[in-house]
Write a structure and sequence with these properties.
The structure holds two protein chains of two kinds. By secondary structure, chain A is of the alpha+beta class. In chain A, α5 crosses α6. About 6% of the residues of chain A have low confidence. By secondary structure, chain B is mainly α. Helix content of chain B is 76%, strand content 0%. Chain B contains eight helices and no strands. Chain B is globular, with a radius of gyration of 17 Å. Classes of the chains: A alpha+beta, B mainly alpha.
């Protein structure tokens, strides 16, 4: 809409300007209320909210800090998932983990125990000795035993044994298992051998 | 993050326009000063407000408009002040050297004061800030048609009231 003469005439009338003294007064008030001077006065929840708002305002549009934050969350979720997975394996197949298995640290104890066993096997194979001073692994928290009628009776001792020369055996409910390590002929210390497994019973 | 220098730049660039708009709304020098200070303190306290703002002037005018609404609410509780303001015609325009021009400006100031604030603010933004109706609608948070109709009604009132003086000056 094109302004007519009357509108143009009105628009030419100049408004007053703010008094000169206002400038310093208003700017001084604005400076004293600035964020750097108020940061020290904020406390409690107000300070936390204000700090978060300032941080969000600062990183808005910056992808790196958001990526770092997302990565940290993903890592936390991954670790949580791994630990929960380890706990789940401790229970019976097809069942969820028992309450005892869900104790914090049970999965980590199992993982440490498995790692220690692997180290022992490797050392036995490479050096033919087991005289290592490996740290003892604490007992994993065990679930309370159920009623006697639900216990599985196993004739054998159910315990695996191993020698310092790469052999292992055990009796698992009447099934005997023997594992022997066979070193390759002419192989050095790092040569990969084979294993013979014998099952009877 | 705007620092002291940015606040000064904001003031030097926009204070005159914000002052005129606030004075047009409040018709009171003291309240205009309070409005102006409130706006600049707000911007200094929360610099993130201006992040991503394309039209600084429009944004600051909107802050003045919002602050003025609070002033109007407070006024409703101060009947005496309202009566005082209604009886006065503040000096909102620069003084004119010519008596005829001075008379026209006084009449215009009085006529503007008799308009409802919602028509007055639209007239101000259109005539003295040169905003389009789209810009006015965005600044005031009103529909485009509302902005246009308020302008038309307000301008018609001014035209009727100022016609004799205007024709005499023309």
């Amino acid at each position: 809409m094109k302004p007519d003469d009357f509108e143009q005439r009105l628009a030419r009338v100049p408004w007053r300007t703010p008094p000169e003294t206002w400038r310093e007064e208003i700017l001084e008030a604005a400076r004293s209320a600035g964020p750097t001077r108020r940061a020290g006065t904020a406390s409690g929840w107000g300070g936390i909210v204000e700090g978060c708002a300032r941080w969000v305002g600062r990183v808005r549009g910056a992808w790196v800090p958001w990526g770092v934050l997302a990565g940290a969350w993903a890592l936390a979720l991954l670790l949580h998932g791994l630990e929960a997975g380890g706990l789940g394996e401790a229970g019976a197949p097809g069942e969820g983990p028992s309450a005892a298995d869900l104790r914090p640290g049970a999965g980590l104890v199992e993982a440490a125990r498995a790692y220690r066993a692997q180290v022992l096997i490797l050392v036995n194979h490479e050096e033919g000795t087991s005289d290592l001073d490996l740290p003892a692994i604490p007992e994993a928290p065990r679930p309370a035993p159920g009623p006697r009628t639900q216990r599985l009776r196993v004739p054998g001792d159910g315990i695996g044994h191993g020698s310092a020369h790469g052999a292992g055996w055990g009796d698992f409910g009447g099934v005997a298992l023997v594992v022997r390590g066979v070193a390759p002929e002419g192989g050095g210390g790092n040569a990969v051998g084979t294993a013979e497994v014998e099952v009877s019973g | 993050m705007p620092g002291d220098a940015d606040i000064e730049r904001l003031y030097d660039t926009h204070a005159a326009a914000l002052y005129a708009f606030a004075l047009s709304l409040t018709r009171d020098e003291t309240e205009t000063r309070d409005l102006l200070q409130e706006v600049f303190v707000k911007v200094a306290r929360r610099p993130a407000l201006l992040h991503g703002v394309r039209d600084e002037r429009g944004f600051l005018l909107r802050l003045v408009h919002n602050a003025a609404i609070d002033v109007f609410r407070r006024r409703q509780h101060r009947l005496a002040a309202t009566e005082r303001l209604a009886g006065e015609t503040p000096q909102v325009f620069l003084p004119a050297e010519s008596p005829d021009e001075a008379a026209f400006r006084d009449a215009l100031a009085a006529a503007l004061g008799d308009l409802p604030p919602e028509q007055r603010e639209v007239l101000h933004l259109k005539l003295w800030e040169g905003l389009t109706f789209e810009g006015i609608a965005e600044t005031l948070g009103i529909p485009l048609n509302t902005a246009a109709s308020r302008y038309r009604y307000g301008l018609d009132k001014l035209r009727k009231r100022l016609r004799p003086l205007y024709e005499e000056l023309s």
